[in-house]
Amino acid sequence: MNGIHDLGGMQDMGPVRHEPNEPVFHAPWEGRAFAMNLAAGAWRKWNIDAGRHQIELIPPAEYLRMSYYEKWTVRLIDLLIKSGLVSRAEIDSGRPAPGSAKATPPLTADKVPGVLASGALASRKLPVASRFEVGRRVRARNIHPTGHTRLPRYARGKVGVIHLDHGVYVFPDTNAHFQGEKPQHVYSVRFAARELWGPDASPRDAVYIDLWDDYLDPA
Amino acid sequence: MAAQPHHHHHDHQDVPSDLTLRVKALESLLVEKGLVDPAALDALIDTYEHKVGPRNGARVVAHAWVNAAYKQRLLADATAAVSELGYSGRQGEHMLVVENTPQVHNLVVCTLCSCYPWSVLGLPPVWYKSAPYRSRAVIDPRGVLREFGLDIPDEVEVRVWDSTAELRYLVLPERPAGTEKLTEEQLAGLVTRNAMVGVAKVTLPPGDRR
């Protein structure tokens, strides 16, 4: 989806403002919103790609206005409703529907260290053939999927060189929409800054982008 | 390609006061429905406020500076080398370490969202997740670095790593001169989060040349 989240290459967003000694959370609600996203994710009703896509669906003006954890809060509510864990009426009233059974949370405090330490692998040990070898010139496809994609607009149509083959990973474009993992190779592709941005860019600089087989053609 | 310095405030993010109430209402609903355990929320917050943060990454960097064999392993298989020091897990499952040298300066960004190596750096700062950084890091990395007080000479190559997949990047900064006598722990104390994202270099505090 050509959404506002695909920010690479825009120039009018103002200076980068960094805060010395920034706290992890700026207010207690940010920590609660962050933690609820992880804890509710433990129901496995959605995956990381669906979670990212839900943030992309926030309307552009809202996306730019909202702070990071406000976006996480909105995304969580949308996912809870879509997945059926919570109804819109329950969100509006703040109360469980009358007569609804109480569930048992899958993530309890004692399980938190183990769950965080083990993480979740996006790689797949599957014998999927790679389409490109390291050193090969490739062109990022000029495609504009209307769903989730991790092919940034600024790379589309541009020619780069395969720098590394990372191995086989879940494909976000299908996984985000619960259409299967479609495992395939992901490569680090080196794009010269001048290929991406034209003759005014530094002749030396480069951007390395991690791209799936389905995003690439031979060049 | 330097962007004109703008002074409007698109990136200023308001925090409406009702967010406290909205998030509290959501939590009590989820707890009442048995969907989340409030003690698990406390544990998650405590982990990222007190246990998992840039000190982890700093220890990785310092260890690589003093141990050439470890540095080799780190650059060849970062996930395994980082977990040797006990750091692994969520948003660090697939790690890559990129090395700064006198010829190459590396910078990490996620233009599409906010991907960041949690297991070694903790949760990302606001600027990393902000529209100004995400938009300009790829088109004007040298301009962005100047805003952080870092002037990269023309003859040095700037490599920007856009974290578009599940690989998570950590920059191995250059060890500053004059640190030969420091212990590994003292070296770790010099390594900042910003240096491991690539928006700063590691420096000795003034008057602290040892």
Average pLDDT score of chain B:
92
Total beta-strand segments of chain A: 5
**Unreliable residue stretches of chain A:** none
Q: How do the SSEs of chain B run, as a string of H and E? A: HHHHHEEHHHHEEHH
Biggest pleated sheet of chain A? 5 strands, antiparallel
Task: State the strand order across the main sheet of chain A.
Answer: 4-3-2-1-5
Give the arrangement of secondary structure elements.
The complex is a heterodimer of chains A (219) and B (210).
Chain A: H1 28-41, H2 48-56, H3 60-65, H4 68-83, H5 88-93, H6 112-118, E1 137-140, E2 159-169, H7 172-175, E3 184-192, H8 193-197, E4 206-212, E5 216-218
Antiparallel strand pairs in A: 1-2, 1-5, 2-3, 3-4
Chain B: H1 18-32, H2 38-51, H3 54-66, H4 68-76, H5 78-84, E1 95-99, E2 104-109, H6 118-121, H7 126-129, H8 131-139, H9 141-147, E3 157-162, E4 168-172, H10 184-190, H11 193-197
Parallel strand pairs in B: 1-4, 2-3
